[in-house]
Amino acid sequence: KLTGPALQPVIAPKLVQGRVHLRCSYSPSSPEPPVQYRVLWSRLSSSGKREQIHQETTPQPFSHVEMDGTKLHLGDTVFCTVTAFRRGTPEQQSLPEDSKGFYAGIKFFPESLEIAEDGKEHILTVLSTVPIACPGQDDSCKITLQLSTEDLGSQAPGPPDIALSACQVDLVPGLCSGSSCAAATVTVTAVTDFTQDGNRLSRVRAQLVTPRDPLWRAHTPRDVKVTVRDLPTGNCYSFTDPHIITFDGWRYDSHKIGTFLLCRSDARAFEVHVRQWDCGSHRSTTACNCGVAAR
């Protein structure tokens, strides 16, 4: 067996003459004697098994494969496996080393969200892990995505439990950095519905809007599952001659006559006024709720 430093194969995207390629790079073993590399490319099938798509033997410390839309599609998770051996003595070889799986296509980050009905905005990033190229239309080169939401929490379709800050985003080509070659962001907020409907599951979907390149036309990005944690709705009361219970459970009585501010929000334009009239007798002074106004 050949021994030496680990090969550490890594897959990175690369644009070659306007076509999307993946490049598998690995650290060479010792420079002497001359070393060859056997590189096996594979993709993850829908059943979770690896399918071989390409194999080559090369003296170079890298190997390329094209995203051709036939053997390799956008949406595939790709691996490269590298074995080193001495030229002329293929029986003396290193142990094969796998790269990490590389997802080629458009994806959301994070891949799932858990949020609450508290009004907070959560950032969702849409990114492409491979370069975007538009030959002949460099001035307006972009990938447009239509975003939509769907409620998965009930058998019958209900109102959406989440809201997006935008229904459409554009991915504009840029330099690839890390796992992103183009990115855009939207915010996701849970709908505050004042309904005790338990935790519900929704999803965000992205659909490409008529891309010219056939490679992108056949691509459907993965959905993002969003779990919305139900928060209890606050309640306050004013009833009969008025007994009042506040949001935090404090109880008191109010027998005054007049129009009063019952509650007001500091965060939005919402308040409730209550009108109390005399409803007692000559023996006792009592006020009752006789009117309410809300905005």
From TrEMBL:
Domain of life: Eukaryota
Pfam families xref list: Ig_VWDE
InterPro entries hit by this protein: Dev_Signal_Modulators, Ig_VWDE, VWF_type-D
PROSITE patterns assigned to the protein according to its UniProt record, in alphabetical order: VWFD
One GO CC term, this protein: extracellular region
Segments forming domain VWFD: 234-295
Keyword terms, alphabetized: Disulfide bond, Signal
Gene Ontology molecular functions: signaling receptor binding
PANTHER family listed in its UniProt record: EGF-LIKE-DOMAIN, MULTIPLE 7, 8, VON WILLEBRAND FACTOR D AND EGF DOMAIN-CONTAINING PROTEIN
Name of the protein in question: VWDE protein
Origin organism lineage: Eukaryota, Metazoa, Chordata, Craniata, Vertebrata
Gene expressing this chain: Vwde_5
